[in-house]
Amino acid sequence: MNRNDVTEKIITAKVKGNMTWGEIATRIGQSKEWTTAAMLGQMTLTAQQAAVARELFDLTDEETAWLQIVPYKGSLQTAVPTDPLIYRWYEIVNVYGTTIKELIHEEFGDGIMSAIDFSMDIQREPNANGDRVKVVLSGKFLPYKSY
Questions:
Q1: pTM value?
Q2: Is 88 in the active site?
C-alpha cells in the first residue's frame, strides 16, 4: 500500500459515486482546487479532513493514514507531459514563462511567486465564440535576500 494506491481508490469511488470535485470539496471544507490536489495525492489532509474522506471513499485505517502523511509532490510522470491538456500548460510556460518572469520582476523586484502560500481558482467563462477556461493563480511574492 502507498499513496498512489489510495489515489486510485479515491478516483474509483468518485466515479462509482458519481461525485464532483466541487461536492467533495464542500464536504472536506476546502476549495475545489485544493481538494482535488489533495485527493490526487499532492496535499496533506488534517485528521478531520481525512475522516471525511474516509467516509466519502470508504477508506481503511491505513488508507486514511496515508492522507495525513506529507506526500512527495510532483505528479507528472515525465519531464515533458504527454497529456494534451497538461502539455498546453507546459507550452504556456515555454512561450510566456520569460514574459511572466520579466513582468513579476519589474513589478516586485528579484524574487519568486510562492506555490506554498498560494491559491487557484478555475471557472468556466461563457463566451459566444465558445466557453473559455479562466484560471487565476495567486501566490505570495518572496523576495531573494542578501546575506
A1: 0.85
A2: yes
